[in-house]
Amino acid sequence: MRPVSAFGPCRSVWTPERVGYKLPCMKILLSLLFLCVPIFAAESAAQKEIATALDAWKQAMVKGDAAALGKLYHADLDYEHSGGKHETKSESIAAATAPGSIAKAVEVHSSSSHVYGNTGVVNAKVDITNAAGATSHLDLLMVWLKTPQGWQLVARHATKLP
C-alpha cells in the first residue's frame, strides 16, 4: 500500500506512474507563487510611499513648513494630541508653525505600517522635542489616505509613553 498525501496528485511518492503528475503540480505551484509576488510588491511600494510621506511630515514639523503640512494633511484631518486636544487641519498647521512652538526634533524609533487598499495605518514610537527643549515620548497612530495629491494624513492619535 502506498502512502496517501493530502495533495492528491502532488503526492511525495516518486514512482514511474506518478511522474506525469509532477510537472502539472509544479506548474500550478509556481503559477501561484508568481501570482502572489505582485501583491506583496504592490504593498511594499505603498508602504515605501507612506514612509516617504512620514519622513516629509517629520521634516515639515521641524522646519515649521505650513505649505508642506498643507499638502500632507487631508481636508478632513482629525489631529489628536496626547493630552486629548483635537485639532482640524488649519488648527494643527497653525499650532505647528506658530513662532515658539516649532518642534526642534522629531525622531521615529520604530514604526510599522499596513496598507488596506488606499488606506495606510502607521503605528510609531516617536520622540518630539518642542521649542522649549522638552521631549515627549509618544505612541502615534496615523491613518494615511491615498488621494490624487498623494498620501495624506487623515487622522493622528497620540498617547504619552512613560
Task: Please characterize this protein's 3D structure.
The protein has 162 residues and is α+β, with helices and mostly antiparallel strands. The chain has one domain (47-160): Roll (Nuclear Transport Factor 2, Chain: A), CATH 3.10.450. Helix content is 38%, strand content 35%. It contains three helices and six strands. A six-stranded mixed sheet has the order 2-1-6-5-4-3. Strand 4 and strand 5 (135-147) form a beta hairpin. Helix 1 (19-63) runs antiparallel to helix 2 (66-72). It is globular and about 70 Å long. The N and C termini lie far apart (64 Å). The mean pLDDT is 85.
Blueprint of the fold:
Layout: H1 19-63, H2 66-72, E1 73-80, E2 86-87, H3 89-97, E3 105-116, E4 119-129, E5 135-147, E6 150-160
Parallel strand pairs: 1-6
Antiparallel strand pairs: 1-2, 3-4, 4-5, 5-6
Helix pairs in contact: 1-2
Which short descriptors sum up this protein?
162 residues; alpha+beta; Nuclear Transport Factor 2, Chain: A; 6 strands; 35% strand
- CATH class call: Alpha Beta
- Secondary-structure arrangement, i.e. CATH architecture: Roll
Biggest beta sheet summary:
6 strands, mixed
In total, the number of domains comes to 1
Q: What percentage of amino acids are in beta strands?
A: 35-45%
Structural class: alpha+beta
Quick recap:
With 162 residues, this protein is α+β, with helices and mostly antiparallel strands. It contains 3 helices and 6 strands, in the order ααββαββββ.
